[in-house]
Description:
Layout: E1 2-7, H1 14-23, E2 28-30, H2 31-41, H3 43-53, E3 58-59, E4 62-63, H4 65-72, H5 76-99, E5 105-109, E6 124-129, H6 132-142, H7 147-156, H8 160-166, E7 169-172, H9 179-190
Parallel strand pairs: 1-5, 1-6, 2-5, 6-7
Antiparallel strand pairs: 3-4
Helix pairs in contact: 2-3, 2-5, 3-5
Amino acid sequence: MKKIGITGGIGVGKTYVSNILRKMNYPVYNSDVMAKELLENDDNLISLIKNNFGDKIYSDNKINKSLVASLIFSNDDLLKKFNSIVHPYVFEDFKKWCKNQQSSIIFKEAAILFESDAVKDLDCVICVTANKDIRIKRIISRNNKTVDEIEMIISKQMDQQKKEELSDYVITNDGDSSILFQIDKILTDLK
């Protein structure tokens, strides 16, 4: 089984590429979605988060996303601490998920694949990319965020160009290039 990472900064279209792969019947593990699920359903993780960030981090048994964002995106140490608590749970969940897959190629979508060191267990990485203006427009259209908030999030992520350099493949998602053609080319190379 080949394990392929899909990464890129916020707004590049990682999930768009992942959804195409799902339609092609490839299993895709979405790390962000699963992290949120684990944060609300894994009692051990919930306890760890509350012990480190206080009970207010949860409201009605749901993680308070706006409080988390305001805490971790304004403080690098808290961001590292939060990620260091959550990532081992996501890593273990991904290992269990892999055991239940039948495909010869599976994908793991994660915005912080390199930063979390999750890349070490993958065979290769695809980086999805788009220019900053396109990314900001996409984020504004789907989230209720200001340009300043988006710029702050982008500044906290690894530089997009660095992600591309560390990756084995790059998919350009600029609205002009054919995503399907790029995916087909990579899949042909992987088989």
